[in-house]
Amino acid sequence: MQTKETTTETCCNVIHEETVAQVRAAGLEEQEVTDLAAIFAALGDPTRVRILRALSVSEMCVCDIAAALEMTQSAVSHQLRLLRNMRIIKRRKAGRMNYYSLDDDHILSLFETGLHHVSHR
Q1: Rounded to whole angstroms, how far apart are CA atoms 25 and 15?
Q2: What average pLDDT does the segment 6-21 reach?
Q3: In the predicted model, what is the mean pLDDT of residues 26-34?
Q4: Which one of 23, 55, 58, 67 is separated from 9 by 20 to 30 angstroms, measured CA to CA?
Q5: Domains (ranges, CATH) in the chain?
């Protein structure tokens, strides 16, 4: 019986125990991993990025967001609901009107850091 020889590429034959221990100690809880991945997934949609850009400039109502982005109010509302459920944006009620803004400075920082990264080359 003839066996097929396979080769696997390895970086080295030594495990760097201290480095592995540091990485394991800095690990994330499973819920943190899931929540963080969900935030990045939410930010991975061009329409939602445009909405976040608008809200990084000013608090806005659905009508104004729709007008600024040249979208229907229905389409904007759908995206706002998703972003609100992810705690990326928040809603402030004023009478019958709803005004939306970024949830906190962490979201603004995340957005601005990403924008800075793609802007410099």
Answers
A1: 16
A2: 80
A3: 95
A4: 23
A5: 29-119 (1.10.10.10)
| Amino acid sitting at position 90 | K
Residue 65: which of 84, 50, 44 has the closest Cα? 50
Dist CA 82 CA 43 (whole Å): 11
Q: What is the pLDDT of residues 90-102, one digit of tens each?
A: 999 999 999 999 9
Q: Tell me the pLDDT band of 5, cut-offs 50, 70 and 90.
A: low
List strands edge to edge, sheet with 89-94: 60-61, 97-102, 89-94
Q: How many CB atoms lie within 10 A of CB 107?
A: 22
Per-residue tokens: 94:
């004023």
